[in-house]
Write a structure and sequence with these properties.
about 170 residues, 3 strands, mainly alpha
Amino acid sequence: CCTLNADLAATLARLAARGGLDHLVIETTGVGDPLAVAWMLERDGLREHWRVDAIVTVVDASAVERLRGDAAEVDLQIARADVALVSKLDLTPDAGATVMGLVRTLNPHARMLPSPRGATPWEVLLGVGRPLAPAGIPPDPHVHGTAWETWAFRTTAPLDEGALEDFLCAL
């Protein structure tokens, strides 16, 4: 995602100029970091036309343990999701209970749903509104998944938004 941000930004600018879209779904690669795309949509010229409604991650219950060993991005995608669609539950020995527990451990606030084979309703993906916590539970800004590290940087100098985004993507 980071290397394709300029192409994606140009495409989004063209789509905004063309108009006529109610929703846009952007799919990152299997090892992509969806947060890079979400941050890119906050740039000047894009934030006026687009907003991130939700980060949706599909978790393959039959392969997630193997994939976690191959790529750290698997945990990042789960931890950063607003909605986790868990697929292939029927292919697991415990009907997905272990995988559902893993997802909940990595991301206690995501809306977690079993993904019906080839029939995920659009209303699950659109209009989510980026919930931060289950209904009735206020979000705790100090609770992070195991993949998060917190640090602070203070300066009185002005920061270039694009350079800051590029720096954060490089991290």
